[in-house]
Amino acid sequence: MNKMQKSLRTSQFGVQGPKVVAFGGGHGLSASLSALKLITRNITAIVTVADDGGSSGRLRTEFGILPPGDLRMALSALSDNAEWGQTWRDVFQHRFNSQGELDGHALGNIVLTALWQILGDPIAGLDWAGRLLNVKGRVLPMAAVPLEIEADVKTCNSALETVYGQVSVAMCEAPIRRIRIHPENPPVYAAALDAIRDAQWLIFGPGSWYTSVLPHLLIPDLYAAICASKARKLLVLNLIADTETSEMTAADLARTFVSYGPDLKIDAFLADAQSITDISALENLAADYGASLFTRNLAAPDAIAVHDSLYLAAAYREIFGKMKQDS
């Protein structure tokens, strides 16, 4: 651990750090978790389970299980930074390249599938995988069953067309007007609801807005727990627009999020200072919702559209400390 990482560990929340629940999936959630583990050990990741493509989609179809890919990525992001954790992270993330049936499969997806079959309990399987990777926190699925995502998109003649499946929605270049999940009221694990109830901070984003971030607000039991939680709520905006949000600014992302959560009070917005093109609109939106707006340099200097874990951790620590003092 370098000096900056040690400095980030020292906070007014104590050695273990604040209790944080982070929502999302894919690379966006992984970036957030990689930052959070530098400042707290009390992390619960609540991860989307709607992936229907690639290795996850194949295993989901073949075995009728939760798609493991986003859960695997969250476990890997929370793995210990010492040699043991990083070695097993690399093993879990290893993807086979062959001419056979293993081609494209990530080893961690197969390990999770085996654990779930042996133990008969997805939560127990994730906890065992977490012990293997020596994770700093816990990884939980956002629902107890696989989900389907569908979206209404605006076509070139202004008509609405329905797109089905997470992969199709994520790759959709037409403007998305609304998303839905099926089943509409899926069962949720008690462990996820308990974590939300006990949290000091709930963090949403960054990530694919319509397929990783917003779906959490569409699950009735999860949404009710989020709204009832006394935790502070932070919305982290993306660095750049992706395919499914190609026409959206930072203010558009924030506005869309709050439209899906009308009963949800956001306490703070966090955005990269260099990527905002509509700062006035974002400032006005934050003021309208009584939220604090933090703009900081968050992008990795040597990569395109990737959050730097140290920059993001420093921003989290600053926000946690400042808003605790203001409470």
Automatic annotation (TrEMBL):
Compartments it resides in: Cytoplasm
InterPro entries per record: CofD, CofD-like_dom_sf, Gluconeogen_factor
Entry keyword RNA-binding: no
Subcellular location, principal: cytoplasm
UniProt-listed SUPFAM superfamilies: CofD-like
Transmembrane segments: none
Keyword hit for Cytoplasm: yes
Role summary: Required for morphogenesis under gluconeogenic growth conditions.
Family that this chain belongs to: Belongs to the gluconeogenesis factor family.
Protein name as it appears in the record: Putative gluconeogenesis factor
Native organism: Arcanobacterium hippocoleae
